[in-house]
Amino acid sequence: MPGSSEEAAFLRGEVGVDGAPVEEARDEAEIQKTKALESLERNRTWLGREWLTWLLWRSNSTAPLTTFDGLDLHVIFVGPVVLQGLAGEATELRAKGYQSAYAEVVREALTRGLLVHRATLRLMLDEQVYEVTVEAEQSVLRSARLPQVLSEDDDEALAERLMLVDRLGSLVDALWEAFADVREDAVWHRREVPGLRAWMTGAE
Q: How far is Cα 38 from Cα 32, in angstroms, rounded to an integer?
């Protein structure tokens, strides 16, 4: 039946009443901008995975990860952890259970090229304890548990809670800065990478 294909395209919303495509082709500059943004997002995600993997290794000891306001900041991975990779027979691993991130199966997955993509961190600063779930994409904070609010007055309690939320963000930033300090330095390949690999393989 003549015109049936055009009618079908119109019904699908692919062309207008004049038969012209509804969506005009994007110009080359817009296409290149989109590709650049996608590349930037991939790089941020990869760096976020490196950061979480580095935190996992460093948190395996009892030493503080960094300091904040003159106080030692300790980190422990608690709850489930998700690892992801780009290639291979397995590109994702989910390990459940308290402190499952430190399990041998996780270290084995790291040796195969997977990196930590999502994890729940317990941050301990003096007597304050925070828990936050972090994803590698731009270090997105998915959920958080704050220290107990001490104020009984509603307004004061709200102000205290907002202060704790702000401090949690600052603590995560401090962990990023601690990673950036070694990642951008020659010490990364000389000390950090060999140490991380030794931990993965149990050679520490």
A: 10
- Give the closest residue to 117 by CA, choosing from 130, 97, 135: 135
Looking at residues 107-131, what average pLDDT do you find? Answer: 94
Q: Who's near 172: CB < 8 A, 6+ residues apart?
A: 123, 132, 134, 139, 141
Given pLDDT bands bounded at 50, 70 and 90, which one contains residue 154?
confident
What would the DSSP string read from start to end of 75-97?
EEEEEEEEEE-SSSS--EEEE-S
pTM over 0.90: no
Stated as kind and residue range, the H or E segment containing 16 is: none
Closest Cα to residue 174, out of 146, 143, 139, 201? 139
How far apart CA 49 and CA 117 sit, in angstroms, is 5
- Report whether pLDDT(181) > 90: yes
Query: What percent of the chain is modeled with pLDDT above 70?
Result: 75
Among 174, 185, 195, residue whose Cα is nearest residue 72: 174
- Please name which of 132, 128, 129 lies closest in space to residue 141, comparing C-alpha atoms: 132
